Amino acid sequence: MIKEFVLDSLVPPIRQDEQDGISNEKLVNRARGGDQEAFSELVRQYRAKAYGWANSVAKDTFLAEDIVQDALLRAFLKLGTLMDSKKFLPWLRQIVRNEAYMKMRRGGPFRNEQPVSGIQTNTLHKDVVDFSNIDSILSFVAYSSSEKARVEGPEEHLIRLEMMESIQTLLHCLSPREKKIFEAHFFEAISPAELASLFDTSTANIYNVLSRSRVKIRKEQIRLSIHAYTKKRADKGLTRKKILPTPPTL
Amino acid sequence: MNIHERDWTTTRTSAASAIYGALSYLDENAFSLIDVMGLTGHAFRMNIDPKKVHPAGPTAFPGGYILRRNLCNLGFTSCLADPAAPVPPDKLQKTFSIIQESIDHGIPAISYDLFSTEFGLIYGYDDDSQEFYAKDPSNDGVITYADFSEAKGFIFITTISEKLPHSKYEMLRMALDMIVDHARGREWNHIFNGNFVMGLDGFEAWIKVFEKGTVDPLGNAYNAAVIADARQFAVKFLEELTMKWNGTNVVERGVRKLAGEAREFYIVSAEAFEQLTRLFPFPNGGIPNDHNSSNKAIELLRNAEAAEHEGIKVIEKLLQFMKGYYSEKWIY
């Protein structure tokens, strides 16, 4: 029933002139509450944008159309997990881009080639869902930060990029499921309670996963840091090994 | 343990044995463990948990502050790394650096909580296998860089930098200053938020725990064992002052006389603690909350307390004397 509705709502032509009038935030709030008319209105407003995002990844008109349809369906189903209604637009953009990357990987026009420069494809999962794709999420975050950079100055931009880069490296130590949950919580600020329903488990389990993931990530960070340190010493040609005589009885 | 037959090269105060162990790598090490125990003040310490006499008491002091001052008393500058966990990568790398620099210079790094919650030494490293070679009272073995980095609470490293010797007079004055500050509860330890009672007040705190019947058998036995061992070093240290310092001038004679007086009081204290360890042997600890045992323990602690109150008065007198030598002849 919902699916039919969403697809129906996609049929009307894009009417960007309707964007003014009702405040977006109110619309998002109403849509989150299950108001189909409000969601329909949002779709009308953002369909063009969504199409643009999809096409920038797919570079193919028909594929982009497919991507947008599926992404909007996904968005409607998951609207309840959006914490902050002000973040609707970036949230939607991420869903569209994820959907786009997913479709590309499943055999878009480029088949097995890497279609988007800078997008890592070494973490493919068959059952990939919205929040599973750290690379696309990170691309998104990096992208938004590059937009932000224009307003907030290059320093924050750099820090943010560095942070994202290091997180990206570290998350490889998590299992696919841990990764999904960690990303959803970390990047989307989705509460453990909401994650519990999303991942069909208990809130306590989500807390465990998050806490275990943090420990794993911290260990991974230490491991990489030690590796970098010993490599730096090796590059400098410093002593690799020195053992003094065993100390007296302590 | 008979004070005349004991081994003076080992102690239960791991901070002092780690310092002594590190100093033993120096080409010219003038310090015996007796000197180290005395001149660092460790022979005179007492730090009691007033709830149940927790085993953490003897090592519950700000390590960086105390060890820095300990090494300072002995005439060395030092480096300290005590970043809180989780340790950020840059601080971790700097910590590794000072450990390796020290070992490269031939001196182990002093650390804490390597294999047990005591002080120990890191005496080797291997970047290829990513392992430190370490020893503490419980073990001698390797610790991976990763395990070392996964510290509980914080990482602790003190390394000995340079020798900056000062006279034996100054050394003794600095030591007495630390001993008195500790005994009178003036030592800087606010990081423990009053969870431990230091110095002479520790006796009353300990006695109250016995009166309440909430003594932790292991903690009680461990505190008794550490302090009994330490006070024997205190007696020996004071005894050596009376023998090694000669009678050539007023200061030498003053030190000999007052150290000898103080020694008498610490003999009483050392004997009381020795009996306490027999009542509550470490590690099994006996039955401290049994009525008879606790009465006996309280009696022994009161004996030691009375003796140490007098002992500290003499040591304070010695400190005053070392701060401003008395006139050799005074005609009035």
UniProtKB/TrEMBL annotation, chain A:
<feature type="domain" description="RNA polymerase sigma-70 region 2">
    <location>
        <begin position="42"/>
        <end position="106"/>
    </location>
</feature>
<dbReference type="Pfam" id="PF08281">
    <property type="entry name" value="Sigma70_r4_2"/>
</dbReference>
<protein>
    <recommendedName>
        <fullName>RNA polymerase sigma factor</fullName>
    </recommendedName>
</protein>
<feature type="domain" description="RNA polymerase sigma factor 70 region 4 type 2">
    <location>
        <begin position="165"/>
        <end position="217"/>
    </location>
</feature>
<dbReference type="InterPro" id="IPR013325">
    <property type="entry name" value="RNA_pol_sigma_r2"/>
</dbReference>
<dbReference type="InterPro" id="IPR013324">
    <property type="entry name" value="RNA_pol_sigma_r3/r4-like"/>
</dbReference>
<dbReference type="Pfam" id="PF04542">
    <property type="entry name" value="Sigma70_r2"/>
</dbReference>
<dbReference type="InterPro" id="IPR039425">
    <property type="entry name" value="RNA_pol_sigma-70-like"/>
</dbReference>
<keyword id="KW-0805">Transcription regulation</keyword>
<dbReference type="InterPro" id="IPR007627">
    <property type="entry name" value="RNA_pol_sigma70_r2"/>
</dbReference>
<comment type="similarity">
    <text>Belongs to the sigma-70 factor family. ECF subfamily.</text>
</comment>
<dbReference type="InterPro" id="IPR013249">
    <property type="entry name" value="RNA_pol_sigma70_r4_t2"/>
</dbReference>
<dbReference type="InterPro" id="IPR036388">
    <property type="entry name" value="WH-like_DNA-bd_sf"/>
</dbReference>
<dbReference type="InterPro" id="IPR014284">
    <property type="entry name" value="RNA_pol_sigma-70_dom"/>
</dbReference>
<keyword id="KW-0731">Sigma factor</keyword>
<dbReference type="InterPro" id="IPR000838">
    <property type="entry name" value="RNA_pol_sigma70_ECF_CS"/>
</dbReference>
<keyword id="KW-0238">DNA-binding</keyword>
<keyword id="KW-0804">Transcription</keyword>
Automatic annotation (TrEMBL), chain B:
<protein>
    <submittedName>
        <fullName>Uncharacterized protein</fullName>
    </submittedName>
</protein>
<dbReference type="InterPro" id="IPR018247">
    <property type="entry name" value="EF_Hand_1_Ca_BS"/>
</dbReference>
